[in-house]
């Protein structure tokens, strides 16, 4: 681990803060008149997802962390956790509920995800920017509601609830933006 001055940190850098691996999401150098400059930054924990807003003097530093990302295919869930298989080495990586809780409704068997490693330990999981999912349940669209862009709640095969247009029904495949769970279009 190397100490990195906070003034040199940029969006996407990984640091250790309170014994937790975090990724810098925002950083801004502020230089108020007649005061010492400081760095205002936001970092997000890879494990808990908690965002920390920090204000540090420009000469302070944080420990940098090297992140390695490797594609793994989601296999199944059992009592031990969620199992991901490396497509070439067939290494099985098991993630517990804490690492998965924010993304578990996006897990599809056979889909590849980026597992984030730091210090040979799993630090988190990255979803692709968008995913194709099948609608399992969707109420019928009401006639006459088509004058405006009207949406209804539909449930995907994994249990994720998505707001979709009235014409989407069960069995149809849709594309979903994983950042916020919004409907992108038919797939």
UniProtKB/TrEMBL annotation:
SUPFAM superfamilies: Nucleic acid-binding proteins, Translation proteins SH3-like domain. It comes from the Bacteria. Pfam families: EFP (PF01132), EFP_N (PF08207), Elong-fact-P_C (PF09285). CDD domains: S1_EF-P_repeat_1, S1_EF-P_repeat_2. InterPro entries: Elong-fact-P_C, NA-bd_OB-fold, Rib_uL2_dom2, Transl_elong_fac_P/YeiP, Transl_elong_KOW-like, Transl_elong_P/YeiP_cen, Transl_elong_P/YeiP_CS, Translation_prot_SH3-like_sf. PROSITE patterns: EFP. GO terms for biological process: peptide biosynthetic process. This is Elongation factor P.
């Amino acid at each position: 681990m190397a100490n990195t001055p906070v003034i040199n940190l940029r969006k996407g850098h990984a640091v250790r803060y309170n014994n937790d691996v975090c990724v810098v999401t925002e950083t801004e150098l502020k230089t108020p008149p007649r005061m010492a400059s400081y760095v205002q930054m936001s970092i997000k924990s890879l494990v808990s997802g908690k965002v920390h807003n920090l204000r540090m003097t420009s000469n302070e530093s944080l420990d940098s962390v090297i992140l390695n990302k490797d594609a793994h295919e989601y296999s199944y869930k059992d009592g031990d956790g969620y199992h991901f298989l490396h497509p070439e080495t067939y290494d099985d990586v098991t993630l517990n509920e804490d690492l998965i809780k924010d993304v578990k409704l996006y897990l599809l068997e056979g889909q590849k995800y980026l597992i984030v490693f730091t210090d040979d330990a799993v630090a988190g999981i990255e979803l692709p920017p968008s995913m194709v999912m099948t609608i399992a349940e969707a109420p019928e669209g009401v006639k006459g509601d088509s004058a405006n862009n009207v949406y209804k709640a539909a449930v995907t095969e994994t249990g994720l609830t998505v707001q979709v247009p009235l014409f989407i029904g069960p069995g149809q495949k849709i594309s979903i933006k994983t950042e916020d769970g919004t409907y992108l279009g038919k797939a």
